[in-house]
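Methods, example record. To illustrate the input and output format used throughout this study, we show the complete record for phosphomannomutase. The sequence lines were provided to the predictor; the line carrying structure tokens was produced by it.
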Amino acid sequence: MTTPRLVAFDLDDTLAPSKSPLDPRMLETFAALLATVPVAVISGGNFQQFEQQLVHPLRDRDGLPLDDLHLLPTCGTAYYRWSGSDWALQYAEDLTDDEKTRALAAVETQAKAAGYWESETWGPILEDRGSQVTFSALGQSAPVDVKKRWDPTGEKKDHLRRLVQAELPDLEVRSGGSTSVDITRKGIDKAYGMRRLAELTGIDLDDMLFVGDRLDPEGNDYPVKALGVPCHAVEGWEDTDAFLTELIPTLR
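The corresponding predicted structure is encoded as:
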């Protein structure tokens, strides 16, 4: 692989624990990378989640420019850039009302039939994120350790993904974070987001590097790998931090 001109990341379980802010150590490493090359984050969470986990901690750092930070929430179905004073939406591939209704109904029906609809939850199980519908088995605010115990091998959410995809052949269904399944318009996934990123930055896909924890065929990072973008697989933010610690000196 050539030296990347842009490094892109998944967020949950790649840069941070699920739905949690970046660890201070990871934040330091991420800031060092951003000071060296353009960086993109493309993940299943909505923009508000990006703000809580990543953006607010970065903005607390004096002197760190955000012009080269590209944010692609909801699996790349939306794209934000820093305008100098705030984040500006560049595009959003929103689901239609009919697509949202069918997606919400399908994932609830299949989760209940499979025995994955839990009675003890933390926050909403189903979310309409505009350009994405997301199912979170334990709710959006479930503790990280509880999420890890619910589906340690990923078998449950991969099974649910297949069930929902069979019911929604015209939409894209991907296994997302530790307990989530994401539904977007057909063909509007992380590969789509990466292609749009290449168009809007002028950086070829071959000159990018993507880092993610779900590069397996069931995962929502896999479309990036299938697109041919150079990828590096990790199993948690600690892996990412160690990888970047070795990578950053080679970029200077």
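Annotations derived from this record:
The chain has a mean pLDDT of 94.
The first strand starts at residue 6 and ends at 9.
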